[in-house]
Structure formats: C-alpha cells, structure tokens
Amino acid sequence: MKPHYKRVLIKLSGEAFKGNRDYGIDPEFLTFIANEIKEAYDLGTEICIVIGGGNIFRGLSASEKGMDRVRADYSGMLATLMNALALEDALLKVGLHPRVQSALEIKEVAEPFILGKALRHLKKGRIVIFAGGTGNPYFTTDTTASLRAAEIKADGLFKATQVDGVYTDDPVKNPKATKIDAIKFLDVLKQELKVMDASALSLCMDNQIPIVVFDLHKKGNIKKALLGESIGTKIA
Ligand code: GTP
Prior knowledge:
- The chain is of the alpha/beta class.
- It has one domain (7-235): Acetylglutamate kinase-like (Carbamate kinase, 3-Layer(aba) Sandwich), CATH 3.40.1160.
- It is 37% helix and 19% strand.
- The chain has helices at 27-41, 59-64, 69-93, 115-123, 141-151, 185-190, 198-206, 221-226; strands at 7-12, 46-51, 98-102, 111-112, 127-131, 156-161, 166-167, 179-180, 182-183, 211-215, 233-235.
- It has a 9-stranded mixed beta sheet, sandwiched between helices. A two-stranded antiparallel sheet has the order 7-8.
- Guanosine-5'-triphosphate binds next to strand 4.
C-alpha cells in the first residue's frame, strides 16, 4: 500500500484527549491514538503533529469569562505542551521516535522549535510534535497547524477531530444539514463553514496545502486518510 502523501501534519483535537472524562488526559485514548499513528507511520509518510489544549485549558473561553486574553492564551499554550509530553510518552511506548519542539522556550522540558532541526528529525524517521502553539497569543492551534504545515512543506494537513467531516450547517441544530465530501477553500470561507478559523484556512489556501477533516475516534481513519481514501471532508 503506497501512501498518497510524503509528509503530513496531523492536527489532533485536544478535547479528544480527555476521552470519557470531564477534564485532563485519558490514558486509554493515548494508547488508542498512539497505535493509530504507528499504523499510519508504518506506511512510510513523514509525520508531524500539533495538538490542541482544550481538554486542559481553553484560552478563548477563559478570556470570555474575564481573564486577560494574553494570559489566557499563554495558559492554553502550556496546556498543549502537557498534551505533547503525554503523546510523546505514548508514542515511545509503541516503538516510535517522537520529539517534542516547543514554540515557548522551556528548555528543561522540550527542545525549542527550530525548523531545521525539525526537518532533520523527519529525515531520521522521527515524529515531531509541535507544542506551545505559535508562541503568540491570539492564534489558535489550528493556525499553528497551518503555519507549521507550510513551514515544513507538508503536502497535506489532517484535522483529526471529534466530528466526521464538514457539514452544510450545524447537524446538532439542523437535522437537514448534510456532510460535504469535497469543497474548495474559497467556498468554505464564503459559506462561513465552521472548520477552522479564517487565518488557518487562508494559510493552507495560499500555500496549496489540502486539508482533510475526519473523525479521529474511528479506528483506521488516519491510515485511510494517508492512503487517499475518501473519508470525512477534503478541502482543496
Ligand atoms: P541528531 O541525531 O544529530 O539529529 O541529534 P539529536 O537530536 O538526537 O541530538 P540532540 O543532542 O539534539 O538531542 C539528544 C537528546 O536531547 C534528545 O532526547 C532531545 O530530545 C534532547 N534535547 C535536545 N535539545 C534539547 C533541549 O533544548 N531541551 C531538552 N529538554 N531536551 C533537548
């Protein structure tokens, strides 16, 4: 089986890391996702990962409740670092060679983000987990994923999330909403479909990086996406 992609960036939902819990990291989910990534890695594609932090701390909601936005966003960035360390540990346990790079400099905990080193890790067969967002407040982890995907010249961005694709409307509120299999970047922006924020989408559009949105809880989905099988929604 030949993968459809040479190098991908996988954006993992932070919310997913809490599994069935209300908060934090579910070890069972970590084992599941590590095995999913192992199966995908074995196809031969180079893999980088960005994780959200919503299972631990959500910057935007905290700022809506009155916390200073900049402090709230930095807390969210630290949450992504916790998730990154947990995932690094889980990937090591399934025999992979992960490296965490942080956009916030915390040298005792992780390597700093250095693009050249990240590329070298990939060439050596390592999986690079980019933590700490972009290192700046006011940016989402989706934008981090797009930015890093452009920097490493990924030929695809996988948004592995809690839903099975992009819908014409919110399927919870509108029973007539239907799933979209394929759509153009401009149409996502024009129709204001809730996939990613506009800066994340524009970065991928400008750099011609297709996005595949799919359900990360379904076993085999990451591998299927790498093989170019039609799952979820493809934005190109
Ligand atoms: P090559 O094999 O030459 O690509 O280098 P390497 O990355 O294996 O060597 P390096 O000396 O950079 O890293 C050795 C170990 O130190 C690895 O486990 C890295 O994750 C870790 N490491 C490297 N730089 C840092 C850092 O700034 N902070 C922390 N905490 N660990 C680091």
